Amino acid sequence: MQVRVKWIEGLAMLGESGSGHGVVMDGPPDLGGRNLGVRPMEMLLLGLGGCTQVDVLLILHKARQTVLDCVVELEAERAAEDPKVFTRIHVHYVLTGRGLDPKRVEQAIRLSAEKYCSASIMLGATAAITHDFEIREAP
């Protein structure tokens, strides 16, 4: 896997993925950024959310669970001193579907966290990661 980050100006950067996609990142205004894009640490957290969501959806699909919507909400705390690594991350899944089995959902989340999600396992080296979920029945 390869990516490239090109400096634009100030603290603005263009991240280019090996798959040909781009994303603008920027620093906060108090450090000289112009708030043109997400912060690099936010990108890490977004990566964790995307990685685990893919895992959970694939596992539930294989378990023949009918998922119609899935939102992963993440909340993180960082160390006060440099390096300001994540110290705590909470991952909350909101799954909407028809007849979703809570045990299957819990198992999918556990498998993602403990076996499949590279981002979760990597970030878990510095942060305590917790998970919970809610199931909403589709009309």
TrEMBL record:
InterPro entries: KH_dom-like_a/b, OsmC/Ohr_fam, OsmC/Ohrsf. This is OsmC family protein.
